[in-house]
Amino acid sequence: MKIGVIGLGSMGKRRLRLLTEFFPEITLVGVDSRKDRQEEVSGLFKIQTYESLQEAVREVQIEAVCICTSPISHESIILEALNKNLHVFTEINLLNHYYEEAMQLAEEKNLHLYLSSTFLHRREIKLFEKAVKQDPKVTYRYHVGQYLPDWHPWESYKDFFVANKQTNGCREIFAIELPWISKVFGEIESFELQKQKISSLEIDYPDNYALVVKHTSGIVGTLNVNILSRVAKRDLDIIGEQTQISWDGSPDGLYQWDEAAKEMVKKDLYTGYMDNQSYSKTIIEDAYLEEIKEYVALLKGEITTTMYSFKKDQAIIELINQFEGDLS
Description:
This is Gfo/Idh/MocA family protein. Residues 1-94 form the Gfo/Idh/MocA-like oxidoreductase N-terminal domain. InterPro entries: Gfo/Idh/MocA-like_OxRdtase_N (IPR000683), Gfo/Idh/MocA_Oxidoreductases (IPR051450), NAD(P)-bd_dom_sf (IPR036291). Pfam families: GFO_IDH_MocA. The chain has helices at residues 10-22, 35-45, 53-60, 74-83, 99-109, 123-134, 169-185, 286-299, 310-324, and strands spanning 2-6, 27-31, 48-50, 64-67, 87-90, 113-115, 138-145, 188-196, 208-215, 220-226, 233-240, 244-247, 254-258, 263-266. The chain is an alpha/beta fold. The protein folds into two domains: 2-115, Rossmann fold; 119-282, Dihydrodipicolinate Reductase, domain 2. Strand 9 (208-215) and strand 10 form a beta hairpin. Helix 4 runs parallel beside helix 5, helix 6 packs across helix 7 (169-185) and helix 7 crosses helix 9. It is globular and about 60 Å long.
């Protein structure tokens, strides 16, 4: 099997690192218009790199791609890859105006269209889902925040996609969190929202959202999303008479009420986990690896359905569009 990784920035290198380590039988190539990134990746992973997808297809006859570029570029790359009869794995897209065309094209050509939703592969999410199924009479409070300039400390926030109003930082957080929130608590039926810009960041979109959301399950929760928290936070409480769960987003920060012990007990779901010191403690590599495993299994014909899809994401992005309203 031959796979091309398109976009050789931080996420492209993460996918390459995991593919190289866990799937040595796969032939990998890199694609990036920047010569410095090509040279870096060629040295790090000892693979061929190319300036364009067209060149990679011609020289190596790749069968599939992993798209790790800025979300605003995904439309053209996804459609180009499908038109070249390549299976597609893509990081979160944030925009969905081309989804119908992409899904139809993939179906016509019998190609796989795989969309990342990393947190769905976290073991903590499975625990939440099981707990809520056992005790659906709960509420929750969830805060996600990180100071935008700290997202990529090696570059200015003004130089990557979160500075763009169309693919802004709060929008990305919602796109990461809403799939698992909807899976655990049910689809969002209605919401009340307040949003504002209160930072001095050079952005032209809100940096703080406060929501009260109601799910089709009847569960009501509060959700606060911002890009101005100087301490990177994922802070969740799930609360009910029979259920109490708290989580700080890290593998070591999950606690659940134990009725017999009458206290909160730490839950160790990982015997070990892979992390990257360049990122927040809430970002671990294990879930990224699980996505890659699912994609490779799909390509090999070992599975036919996946945890997430463009169809599901279409509804999530429409919901985010409602949150944002008119940002023009």
